[in-house]
Amino acid sequence: MSGKSAPTFDPLIHAPARLTLMSMLTAVSEAEFATIRDRLEVSDSVLSKHVAALAAAGYVESRKGVHHGRRTTWIRITGAGRAALVSHVAALRALIAQIPEEPA
Amino acid sequence: MENIEPVDAAAALDASERARVAIARSVEVPRGHDLVMGAAVAVQIATMAIGLFVPDAWARGVLAGGLLVFAVAAGVELLRFRRLNGVRLEAFASRVVLGTDPWASGAYGVSAAAAYVAGSRDLWWLAACLALAGGTAYALSGRRWMRRYREAPERAVRAESTLLVGLLVVVAVAGLVLLVVSAR
Hints:
The complex is a heterodimer of chains A (104) and B (184).
Chain A: H1 11-14, H2 16-25, E1 30-32, H3 33-40, H4 44-56, E2 60-67, E3 70-77, H5 79-96
Antiparallel strand pairs in A: 1-3, 2-3
Chain B: H1 6-26, H2 33-53, H3 57-85, E1 87-88, H4 90-97, H5 102-120, H6 124-151, H7 153-156, H8 162-183
Helix pairs in contact in B: 2-3, 2-5, 2-6, 2-8, 4-6, 5-6
């Protein structure tokens, strides 16, 4: 027994934009709202909805701050969010492993 | 889960991985950062040696000035980094700017100790060279950390806790105060 819990598919993270958002946040301590919006290529309102849903689950945290002299929002992934992402990615990898290899 | 095709799962994973790598690779160091931090560290090492071994009152001011130069340079560079990238990296702050990376702290420690010894023997030209070498090594260790971050952001992004960094700063300042007192 490894002691680790089984990989869990998380429907809250599975939407492509949310999975990408969570993955990006693992590469930084905190990212500014417009930076994420531009990278995801979504509108302000769409990103706000994703962030609100993830924040409600405790997967991300947001705080008000300043960037280039303008008030903005900074977003970071939480420990719970990181754990959920790891588990979700493991579940996806397990699913991918089911693809039969093509015969040579 | 049964509604998800393995091909879709692979595509989603691939896209998220590419986005993570892309944001890490897009992170830039502000123009002139190496020069600013290297010079600030060199000034701090040199002024520390002067402050510890020149018995005049002005030398205390020089020592305090060196610390101030480093603090201002560190603050400005962190601000520039955040403005430039739209992201904050705690590990950049601690390892690159404050020098908790083993290479940076090692280079600083060795060059500061050597400059201290050179100053105690009135070899001020040597102390200046050692301070420059320390600043250069400090800046190069920052470049090394950035390369590691871009290669494996999920590992490099982890920083020391704020408590640990705070304790290190307190220990460093206390050590400097003790050196100043014992040098009197």
